[in-house]
Specification:
Blueprint lengths: L2 E4 H29 L8 H24 L2 E4 L13 E7 L5 E7 L10 E3 L3 H6 L7 E6 L2 E12 L3
Parallel strand pairs: 1-2, 4-5
Antiparallel strand pairs: 3-4, 3-7, 6-7
Helix pairs in contact: 1-2
Length: about 160
C-alpha cells in the first residue's frame, strides 16, 4: 500500500526519528555504564537501562519503517476543490451544528492537538474526496457523525 505525507509532516517525522535515535544512543551508553557496576543479576540500573534501550530501539525502527517508500505530496499540486492530503477542511456537524476545522495529513507523526487527522484514520478517510457542500458520514469509534464540508484550503504547516 502506498503511503503519503506532506512535506512539513515528513520533516517533523525526520526530526522525531533523529531525536529518538539520540535518546537511544544515550540509553545504550547508560547500559554500558550500568554494566560496569558488576553483578548484573541484581543491578536495577542495568535492568532499567536495558528496558529503556529496547523501547527506544523499537520506536526508532517503527519511525524508520513508516518513512520507507513514503511519497511526499505538495497540496498546491492537487485539485483545490476536493479534500485531499495537505488540506484544511472546515466542517459543520449535521446533528449539533458545531463547526470544526481539521488538517488532513498523511501517515507518521501527526499533531492531533493541532487538529491534524491522518487520511488513514476513519475521520480523515471520510473527508478525503469530498467537496464544499458535501455531507459525509464518518464512522468513528465513538459513533457515526454526519459532517457538511464548509470550506477547503491548503494546509501550510
Amino acid at each position: 500500500m502506498q503511503k503519503y505525507m506532506t512535506r512539513a509532516q515528513f520533516e517533523r517525522h525526520r526530526r522525531a526519528t533523529e531525536a529518538c535515535q539520540l535518546k537511544l544512543d544515550a540509553a545504550r551508553k547508560k547500559v554500558g555504564k550500568a554494566a560496569e557496576h558488576g553483578d548484573l543479576s541484581e543491578n536495577a540500573e542495568y535492568e532499567a537501562a536495558i528496558e529503556e534501550s529496547g523501547f527506544l530501539a523499537g520506536r526508532v525502527a517503527e519511525l524508520q519503517q513508516t518513512i520507507v517508500g513514503v511519497q511526499v505530496i505538495d497540496p498546491r499540486q492537487t485539485d483545490p476543490d476536493f479534500v485531499s492530503l495537505g488540506k484544511t477542511v472546515s466542517v459543520k456537524d449535521a446533528e449539533t451544528d458545531a463547526e470544526e476545522t481539521y488538517h488532513v495529513v498523511g501517515v507518521g507523526v501527526t499533531q492531533t492537538d493541532m487538529g491534524e487527522v491522518s487520511y488513514s484514520a476513519p475521520l480523515g478517510g471520510s473527508l478525503v474526496g469530498s467537496r464544499v457542500g458535501d455531507v459525509v458520514t464518518a464512522k468513528l469509534p465513538g459513533g457515526t457523525r454526519r459532517l457538511e464540508i464548509l470550506s477547503i484550503a491548503v494546509y501550510d504547516a
